[in-house]
Amino acid sequence: MRMVSPSLLSADFGNLQHDIEMLNQSECDWLHVDVMDGMFVPNISFGQPVIKFIKKHAQKPLDVHLMIMDPGRYIEDFKASGADIITVHYEACTHLDRTIHAIKDCGLKAGVVLNPHTPVCLLEDIIQECDLVLLMSVNPGFGGQKFIENTYEKVRQLKALCCRKNPNCLIEVDGGVNTANAGKLYECGADVLVAGNAVFKSEDPIETIKQLKK
Ligand code: DX5
Ligand code: ZN
Fold first, then answer.
1. I need a labelling partner for 169 at 20 to 30 A (CA). Which of 8, 65, 124, 154 fits?
2. Tens of pLDDT, residues 105-133
3. 34 included as an active-site residue
4. Nearest CA among 155, 124, 137 for reference residue 196
5. Residues whose CB is less than 8 angstroms from the CB of residue 27 and which lie 6 or more positions away in sequence, other chains included
6. Cα(10)–Cα(8) distance, rounded to whole angstroms?
7. Do 111 and 130 meet the contact criterion of CB atoms below 8 Å apart?
8. In this structure, which ligand is nearest to the CA of 175?
9. Does the beta carbon of 145 sit less than 6 angstroms from any atom of ligand 1?
10. Nearest ligand 1 atom to alpha carbon 139
11. DSSP character for 147?
12. 3-class DSSP state for residue 193?
């Protein structure tokens, strides 16, 4: 699959409705929503009130990436705000299996996120429960960072693990994705690419989204 999930972290917060309507018109598949708590990552973004507003205008599923400590505390709140997909960090959950099931019990798609230093093999006993796995290709917290090259190898390893244990699991990649590395990421086995700066800082975001899917 070749899907694109533009990250609203790089959108114009002063005119969010304009950017969401642009995404509605584009070929993008999901809207990526980055929630940061200033604890798990050294930055604070936005929370439920903003997501409710995004939901009101978006015509595509909201792919909510929780960069917060112990995200199990807030699953029902994010469901109520309009999340369709929730991903939680392996590094932020003591009881990851419980949290993944809590997301699925709400009727949402559930995924695990791995930081760049966290090996794919740690997913061995949770992969069967995942609708998707998100591999961070930068250290989370900020948009506009440089892509970490080791990600290609992690995508290949994850693809092999999914083939062995959960062929329906989608592979998503987040951080420093652009039109130069997208093709290779899909070739390695990625299904969904997140792109913030590459989309919103480009001259023609709609065309960039189209290019990212090629
Ligand atoms: C980083 C976020 C990303 C970020 C990606 O912590 O999870 O989703 O917005 O931005 P770019 O594509 O600019 O690296
Ligand atoms: Zn993200």
1. 8
2. 999 999 999 999 999 999 999 999 999 99
3. yes
4. 137
5. 4, 206, 209, 210, 213
6. 5
7. yes
8. 1
9. yes
10. 6
11. P
12. strand
